[in-house]
Amino acid sequence: MTQEEQIFFKIDKKTGNLTIEGKGFEGPICEDVLKSFEELGEITHDKRTPEYYKKPRQVQTTRQRLRH
User: Fold this and answer.
1) 30 lies in which domain range?
2) Cα–Cα dist 19/11, whole Å
């Protein structure tokens, strides 16, 4: 079963700090996805989870030439 990729946002009511967390991403693809949110403010902390160090799944496709 494939885990669904999700992005969570948490805003601290006292400080206004925003925390963005990616779940279900394997490998550095999460960094690429989260880069689109950089315009929301300065990044002050970056933490890699164990999922970051997993090898991303790859999809293999095969093409077969048909003979007539």
Assistant:
1) 6-53
2) 6
